Structure formats: C-alpha cells, structure tokens
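I'm stuck. Please check this protein.
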Amino acid sequence: MWIIVGFFAAHWVLSVFFQTFFHHRYGAHRMFTMTPGWERFFYVSSFLVQGTSFLNPRAYAIMHRQHHAFSDTERDPHSPHQFSNLWSMMKQTLHRYEDYAYRRVEPESRFDGGYPEWRLIDDLSQRWSMRIAFGASYTLFYAAFAPHWAWFLLLPVHFLMGPVHGAIVNWCGHKYGYRNFATDAGDRSRNTLVFDFVTLGELFQNNHHKFGMSPNFAVRWFELDPTWLVIRAFAAAGIVKLPVRTQRMRWTRLDADGQAGLSVTHLRREKRDVSGGTKENVSAAS
C-alpha cells in the first residue's frame, strides 16, 4: 500500500512543482533566468514527470498571460465566474489550450514570445502513442504493487494530473478563501490556503494577481510558498538567477475596520527585458 501512496504523492508533487516552477514562474512570467542547458534539463524533466498530461509551455504561457490581462471577465480563458460548473470551464480551457498547442490559432502579439520552446519535445508529447505509453507504465506499476483493485481508481488522476491541478487552482483560487489586496476591476482572485501544500504556492492567487512578477507568492507572516523556498535554493546553487531588481511586497492593515490594505516596496524592474521577448510580453504577463 505504501508504495502506491508514495508513487501517487511523488507524481502529484513533482508534476505541480514543474508546472509552477517551470511553466508558470519561468515560462509565462520570466521571474528568473537560467542557462539554455538548465532550460533544456527542466523542459525534459517536466515532460518525463508530467507524462500523459505534459503541458505545452507555449500554450500555457499564452493562456496564462491572457488570464492575467482579462481575469474573471468574459475574455478570461478559465474563470469560474464565467461558467456554471467546473466541467464546462475545463472543457473550454481544453479547447483553447489545444488551439495554441496545435497552432490552430495565433494569439495577440502582446501575449506571444518570451517562453521556452522545444518543438521536438512538444511534438512528441502530443502524440497519442506517447500518451498511451505513459498511461501503460502507470497501469503496470499499479498492477505490480497495488494490494487491491480499488487503488486502480487513482489511475485517472495520474492520466490527467495537469488538468486536475489546473482545475483546483483556477476554480478554487478564484472562488474560495481570503483576499489580502484589492486588484484590478473584475478580478476576484483569492488565497485559498495559508500553507499551500496542495499546489505548492499556486493557490495564493490574490497575492499573485496583485504582484504578477514577484517570485514569492506568499506575503503575510503565516503564509508559506514552498516553491519559493526551492527557487531560493536553486539561486544559491547557481541553477537560476533572480533579477537584481525584482518585485517585492509587504502587507499591512490600513484602516480600523480590518479591511486588508497594503504597503509596497517595489524595486524598479530592470529596463533590460529578461524574458527574451518584447516589453509588451512582460507587461502582459504581469
């Protein structure tokens, strides 16, 4: 039993880590930089770990930038406030994702560019033969170690790990929890957990929507963003490089009725475009 529990936990944690670290904070926002060699390493690692539900970094970045630009409005690609139920939201998200992953639709120029791209891995990941191979490997592992047939009910989660994480973040992160900051008109983002052990920081949506280029998604003393701790360790080891001038934030209460306010220390962002794309791409992502 514990082998299956450990396998499931490892697949969950590693899949969501690469999603938030590589696809989101690096690919969509370029909150830090890394060498081409390390970028290829994390690209392949994301593919091998996420397996059947590997997310195309280009499609992910485009949709995520659109999400920030149009948060919770009719143009948001995955807002829970524009759909009657979770299933309809995820179905629409899939259609939009496939349009960009298979290049059926081209995005506005401000959402394009500045993301990691490796066509060989992207094409390989989108082949059904590869998805079936990954799915078969999960099934064979369960056949070897599951003590009871009921454990096989976890297999669909393995097959759809990326969409499951996306459903949790996009639905819960904009419906349930508390708000530290007032955000742009229309945005209804929330912080769902104070210690986000489920999605490794992704559920601090309100914090992130207020400060889209801050690599630390936690701001208050009781909030903990596990991925930020890993990023700091990677920076200390020279694997990634954080900008000299980056975006920071500090929360405080401004009025007696307990309404959340803020005080910001926003060190001016480098004029140099660290994303590798245009300045418009950086502003759209943040």
Q: What stands out?
A: The CA atoms of residues 65 and 285 lie 5 Å apart. The chain has eleven helices and two strands. The mean pLDDT is 88.
